[in-house]
Amino acid sequence: MDAGELLTIPGLWDFQYRYFAGSTASRFFNALKREGRIYGTQCPKCARVLVPARSFCDACYVDTDGWIETGPAGRLEIFTIVATQFPGLPPPPFVIGYVTLDGAGTAILNRIEGIDLSDIDAAARKLMGRPRVTARFSERREGRITDFVFVPLPA
What we know:
- This protein is of the alpha+beta class and 155 residues long.
- Helices cover 15% and strands 30% of the residues.
- The protein has 2 helices and 8 strands.
- The protein has a 5-stranded antiparallel sheet, covered by helices on one side.
- Strand 5 (94-101) and strand 6 (107-112) form a beta hairpin.
- The longest helix is centred in the first third of the chain and has 14 residues, at 22-35.
- The radius of gyration is 18 Å and the shape is globular.
């Protein structure tokens, strides 16, 4: 069955809010902004380094204690190539992926840039090889996850 004309359904969300990041996320995002570095927190029970930093371990349900700098390089674990335009997102195609940074025990989601997407099938084959990537920080940082993207490391 053909979808026919693609519809836009009007709506209005008119509210303001402030997200309270808490002390752990605030420290994590301030390090992105001020230092251009990525830190994780370590679980005292299982020893995993959680990135982005979290105040408790999602596996052991205990408070984390130490702060450890990770990466900025790591391995692409899984990805998707976005080929459809969505409101508020960059023009397609682009890549989003989970990267496990060196020294981390969890993966962090972000954009992957520097991949030739002129042939999406060829790009997917290359990305399925789980290439090593590194964080490339923006010159003007705001303390958000968008302060950096991942780019491939030379083979």
